[in-house]
Amino acid sequence: MVTSDLGACEWFVWDLRRSGLIDRGPLDQIVGEFLKRNPRAEAPALAEFLVDQGTLTAFQAERILNGKSQGLVLGPYVLLDAIGSGSMGQVYKASSKNDSNFYAVKVLPRRSMWNVRLARRQVRSFATFEHPAVVPFVDVGTAGGLHYLAWPLVEGNTLESLIQHHGKLAPATAALYAVQVAQGLTVAHQNNLFHGLVKPSNVMIGSDNQARILDFGIGSLLVENEGESLVDTMSTANTLTSGLDCASPESIMEPTNRTPAGDQYSLGCVLYYSLTGHVPFPEGSAVEKMMAHQTKEPTPIRELVPNVPAGLVAVVQRLMAKTPEERYSGCDELVEALEPFLGDLNQLNGPGGSGARTPPNSQSGGRMPGLGNRSNPGAKITLPSRSNPGGSGMRSNPASSSMIVPPSAQTPQPPASRGGVPSRASFNLPAVSDETEGGAAARSHTPPELGRPMPKLPTRGATTGRPEPMRPARPAKPMPPPELEELPDAEPAWAEEASEPRGKGNAGTIGLIAVAIVLMVIVYIGATLLMK
Ligand SMILES: Nc1ncnc2c1ncn2[C@@H]1O[C@H](COP(=O)(O)OP(=O)(O)OP(=O)(O)O)[C@@H](O)[C@H]1O
């Protein structure tokens, strides 16, 4: 199809070609047919058509209409939608050209500096085991100057989101999720992997009532490894701050001191949050929170929620012991300590509700996922119902803006062999990519995205069809074919990383941050003593 045939859609079609989302042949055919029927159509109309017939997702169309055609294909991943953003970067729902499964792809800010080689080693470690509560870190790569990390996409709502919207959990429900997380951590710790950032926003509860730990791998990237720190200083600082509510005292004193025992402390904070609806130290500045983790005890749980069993409170206290040695010998011991509090979930009252029922879509058949027959053989464990508004606290919350829409509601579900998480074996891991955008960016057909409303597209009245704000007008000179075009961000970040051990400088900076934190703590304690 020649450029002159494209009319007012010319710039859009060029950008679409540059994006690498669709093969040129099929694209030209679809566009040609559309323009034959609508010769005067402008770009938004064409975009809407492509979304309607499933060639583009609404997110992709919106990005391209806004002139952001780069970065939609990162290595094997085709970005389909934005899920949310965290302290390290933006997270996208993506499909992989390697296996057609869905992934959560975290894209780090441009020019983040970290050592991809060591991150790849992390990825390989996750290939050695599987657990229903562990969402494995499956890929890391660089494309067009952007670094990306990938995990299988899981459906559900985070504990943070659930509790923010529906309040604290019933003790048995809180214990159930803590057991599931502890089981996942047990297996990870046995494989020499700690999490380092366990917190309510990193625990996803699926419609099968299985807790799944998100963001595995990131904590290790924050830690010095062979003298090289993996994540740039700014990302490290942001991530540490965002994790402060559940950070162990020892990781606060020394940010690279992340261990299995630290995961226990963080899980203690998560359990405290589940039982009370508040993090242990909700008040004050970042420094005051750091101090509190070092020196203070949180408000006693039974002062806030009298019906929490004393034994469960004792478990939280032990998990949150200030010194690692006082905690459990391992998460397996913790699982045993929690099991007596699972009770009979049929009898439980959730936030504002009566008994819970087994969810119709529960894959566990009412049994506690992950525990099999091992625990409470006598107890008839029925999982809390998402669909029971008066139930046990595990309720769906379609109104939550911070929640992702379960992919089942958006797109055809990928084959899930582990209660929502595609099995590691089925990942068919993409060769860790180190390609530049556009170069190896294979042209693929984007899987149709169902059910997402079309974004408000720019009005069609504009003479160019170009939305506002517009990019600068295209130069009058003939454009080179996209294949030959120089991509603006195609600088090989990997080459830099390979030649320069940036982590060392970064490690030094983390050391300085640690020293500064220690000094702040000392000054604070001194000032407090003087005031007394
Ligand atoms: N594997 C995953 N499957 C589905 N959603 C995910 C997955 N990983 C992350 N998310 C979602 O992506 C969003 C952003 O995640 P991200 O980890 O960046 O932020 P966060 O945990 O909220 O904050 P922080 O960066 O401070 O930890 C969150 O809503 C999170 O639930």
UniProtKB/TrEMBL annotation:
What InterPro entries does the record point to? Kinase-like_dom_sf (IPR011009), Prot_kinase_dom (IPR000719), Protein_kinase_ATP_BS (IPR017441)
List the SUPFAM superfamilies hit by this protein, alphabetically: Protein kinase-like (PK-like) (SSF56112)
Q: Where is the composition biased (Polar residues)?
A: 384-403
List residues traversing the bilayer. Answer: 510-531
Q: Which residues bind ATP?
A: 106
Molecular function terms, GO-annotated: kinase activity
User: Could you tell me where the Pro residues compositional bias lies?
Assistant: 470-482
Domain of life according to the entry:
Bacteria
**A Pfam short name:** Pkinase
Keywords carried by this UniProt record: ATP-binding, Kinase, Membrane, Nucleotide-binding, Transferase, Transmembrane, Transmembrane helix
Question: Which intervals of the chain are annotated as region Disordered?
Answer: 345-507
What are the Protein kinase domain coordinates in residue numbering?
A: 77-342
Task: Return the PANTHER family for the record.
Answer: MITOGEN-ACTIVATED PROTEIN KINASE KINASE KINASE 20-RELATED (PTHR43289), SERINE_THREONINE-PROTEIN KINASE NEKL-3 (PTHR43289:SF6)
Its recorded name reads: Protein kinase
| Organism encoding this protein | Gemmata algarum
Which lineage? Bacteria, Pseudomonadati, Planctomycetota, Planctomycetia, Gemmatales
